## 1
Amino acid sequence: LLSDARNSDQEVRVEALRVLASYGPAAAAAVPGLCAIVEDPVLRRDAFTVYGAIVALGEIGVPARSAIPVLTRIARDRRVDSASQGEALISIDKIHLQDPDPSVRVRAADNLGECGSLVLPSLRRALSDPDEQVRTAVAKAIRKIEDGSKKQGGV
């Protein structure tokens, strides 16, 4: 799939990245290749490819911890489109939501509560966290997102 993620055809790249993201932590071996895609100056010109690689890193979770410096650079780079910058921040929090340290998971849940309905699947998975404080923070974040959606006429 990583070779398809570098294909000359944008549709092939985006679909390969979508499939990689769907594998979640099972795609851990792809982390170095995904980081290389995000940092590749040629591929970086395609916002859809960059965005797809960032989403995949977030869905991989803790095994993508080594990608946090790359994601941080993306989030701070004004030359990167704002959707990718925002997704980089969300992906960092998704990675932290699976961190072994409960206090890191609580902070990640609090941050994700500010991100909107796209992060609800990650938060809902975290409702089964073994730590009560994490579960409480996750439930609070979900309520915040759902309450915000209702006020805007969604969900």
Note: The first helix runs from residue 10 to 22.
## 2
Amino acid sequence: PSPSSSRPSGRPWGSGPSMTRRALFGPKVAPLIQAASLTLALLLFLAACGPKGSYENVGPEELYEALAAGAVVVDVRTPGEFAQGHVPGAINLPVEEVARWADRIPKDRPVYLYCRSGNRSRKAAEYLARKGYTNLYNVEGGVLAIARAGYPLVR
């Protein structure tokens, strides 16, 4: 129809209220469409607000295999704990100072994080993941698991 012609209601085309979902799809389908729209919006919002990077939990065996391949290994314990025994080649960057050293960690190489039991290194991994790091590995069980598995520590 041309813009100058009228609808059966007598009003010109393009004037008056637009059709609602309820009118288009019926009273039973409209709530489903609205629920689906809200669910999609929520999922998109959560995806946008979620962490930018990621990390993976690994065991001592994966750590020592990566160490042999030249991975970056970070001990997030205190300097005193580090001196009592650490993974060969590890660098000591305490988790309490993660905001200060986070930008010095390479994003293009695998980075393995460990502590005494895995809790502090998990916190460091979560922090780095929020900063966009994706090549992160948290050693579950930390030095305790490493020692139990019989891997060497430098003292």
Note: The longest helix spans residues 30-49.
## 3
Amino acid sequence: SEVSMKERTELLRGTVLFEGLNEEELSFVAGAFVYRSMKAGEFLFREHAVRQRFVVLIEGDVHVTKQVPAGSDVVARLSRGDFLGEGLFLDDSVHSYSAVAASDIRYVELTRERMGFIKRITPHIYYTMVEGITRLLSCSSRFRGAARPKAVRSE
């Protein structure tokens, strides 16, 4: 089932990246997100693939994995309210991790194209989000020593 605008806005409100936005700005950004679902075992993205989307999980679990000589290690487990793909805002070119649905999942995503639209139409909103990501990355060890971090630099 589709996610209501209210649910999308509430989900984003609880995400550190959007805490600098007021109600009107948050609604504008929420409107750019698209609802998606995926079956267990499907990949949101693969290591070394070009970044295409920023995702906030609504339901289900995602495992973030890193290739190692023996196969792949699960470096983080994410669930409702967690996000991944924030490197998209920083112009990083490729994912350094893979993300696979560990169960059936529902999520909202902001594509590279829609993010570009926000940047062009409302640059102050875009840069507020970038500031949130920068703050997050500067105070976070990302994956190292955290069993289930609330926010993960997942690519």
Note: The first strand starts at residue 34 and ends at 38.
## 4
Amino acid sequence: IRCDDGNRGRNRPINNRRICRVARTGSKLVLVVDDDEVERFLLRRALEAEGYAVEEAETADDALLCCHVAYPDAMVADIFLPGRSGIELCLALRGEPATTHLPIVLLTGSKDPGVREMAKSAGASVYLQKTPDPGPVIGAISGLLSDATPVRPTRH
């Protein structure tokens, strides 16, 4: 399954975009949103090693679509994305009843303290500096999901 716009043969087009195919396992699903393919790969590998199912998106718009199809249990997103930022993505998700309680970890390489405040104001559950070590992200996701009650909208 893939949320990104990459043509990997497993995506299905809706409105000329490629979005998630819902194929859930018993594992908690984490959506990783980053325009850097290497960053997504490293986070995917680390999260899967901890037993999480992982879905990917390259942009905030793709992540929004993915959230409405796959209903992830948590999301990790870069703040600086093409188009809408991770901050704008967080605000959009907090404004929708189906995703208002979604645990969101926002990541950035920026050391600007103003970015931390923007992330907090947008409703991020956790804000982390990007590092080569995925440990802090894994720890944040584990902590958020250990306390979380899944909120899944009913499909009609």
Note: The beta strands are 12-14, 17-19, 29-33, 53-57, 74-78, 104-108, 126-129.
